[in-house]
Amino acid sequence: MFKVLWLVLKHRWLDRSDTLRAIPDDMAERLAQRVTASEARHTGEVRLCVEAALPSSYAWRGDRAEALPALVRERAMSWFGRLGVWDTEHNNGVLIYLLLGERAIEVVADRGLTQRVGTAQWQAMVDRLSLRLRDGAFEDGLTEALAEVSALLVAHFP
């Protein structure tokens, strides 16, 4: 029970200001421009989603250490749906999701792209992004991840 309470309190403590410290508005605008430029080169849809914390309803379900990665994945999938990333003609949308409070990264790719790109390739991209974020290079890391996603989409869905 202590782990759940700690998780809830930790995620209640974090808020939008924590997200803005990691991704200030000017950086968000530059990243949005890069997404737009990427999408001009392929038929896919790319979205970035950065959250400081899980909502309490998620955190209360984190009763086991092994439950947390599943909750982060579930939250990323929720954003994938809410943002309509799945709503592409070729099922080739991609969401890059960061949960700052857990230092977690999820990449959610729609089925059209997952049929062409293996899990190991996505994991390698996540690992590279993780290293950049650990060094505090949020913009560089996200820009590189966007470039990698864009290259995959251009190769498979020009």
Description of the molecule:
By secondary structure, the chain is α+β, with helices and mostly antiparallel strands. It has 8 helices and 3 strands; from the N terminus they run H-H-H-E-H-H-E-E-H-H-H. The chain has helices spanning 2-13, 16-22, 25-39, 56-59, 67-82, 111-114, 119-134, 138-156, and strands spanning 45-51, 93-99, 104-109. A 3-stranded mixed β-sheet has the order 1-2-3, with helices on both faces. A hairpin with a 4-residue loop joins strand 2 (93-99) and strand 3 (104-109). Helix 3 (25-39) packs parallel to helix 8 (138-156) and helix 7 runs antiparallel to helix 8. The longest helix is centred in the C-terminal third of the chain and has 19 residues, at 138-156. The chain is globular, with a radius of gyration of 16 Å. The termini are far apart. The mean pLDDT is 91.
Helix-strand string: HHHEHHEEHHH
Describe the biggest sheet?
3 strands, mixed
Shape: globular
Q: Overall pLDDT, averaged?
A: 91
Total helical segments = 8
Structure summary, number of beta strands: 3
Using only C-alpha atoms, the radius of gyration works out to: 16 Å
Strand order of the largest sheet: 1-2-3
Helix content: 55-70%
> Low-confidence spans: pLDDT under 50, at least 5 residues?
none
- Helix vs. strand class: alpha+beta
Amount of beta strand: 5-15%
Give the N-to-C terminal Cα separation. 50 Å
